[in-house]
Amino acid sequence: MNYFWFKAFHIVGIVAWFAGLFYLPRLFVYHAEAYEQPEPAQSILKNQYQIMEKRLYSIIMTPAMLLTVAMAIALITTEPEVLKEPWLHAKLALVVLLIGYHHYCKRLMKKLAADECKMTSQQFRWFNEVPTILFILVVMLAVFKNNLPTDIAAYGVVCLLIAFAAAIQLYARKRRLDRERALSADLSDAGVGSST
User: Fold this and answer.
1) Fewest 10 Å CB contacts: which of 10, 106, 117, 190?
2) What is the percent of the chain with per-residue pLDDT over 90, rounded to a whole number?
């Protein structure tokens, strides 16, 4: 019976942790874009994003990560023979990467708060996709275990990366064109106003 309780709370921890891992880097995107705004909007937005990032990290993400890890350890204690399984070794390696990503997010938060972060919103968009790829791989390992079709999984991840790259580039192009249109409209309005 303990196994089911541990598994249930392990899943709850995973859902909450990944919600934060998906959302925090998105806040970093908006935080980086705040630097493009004129004052006082820039200061107001940066301050608001710092508060949101800190609360998300401290109140949701870190407790959820700790719950996930604690329940995983509890699950393993109910079935210690699973430690001999290669799929679990691969899954644990991915979880170690996720924990590293989690802590790197804290470092980025501190840099953003100190106005020392040099990453652009475009780079943060790429950074935002890392937990998605790791999440997919972890879930596939948990479901397929040692029967994971690695060739299909590899092709799927490559296709996903290509789709992410295309979406990020298309969005960057759209934003650039929108800015150019807005600048052209401002210039034409200024020209019309000065000639009348």
Assistant:
1) 190
2) 64
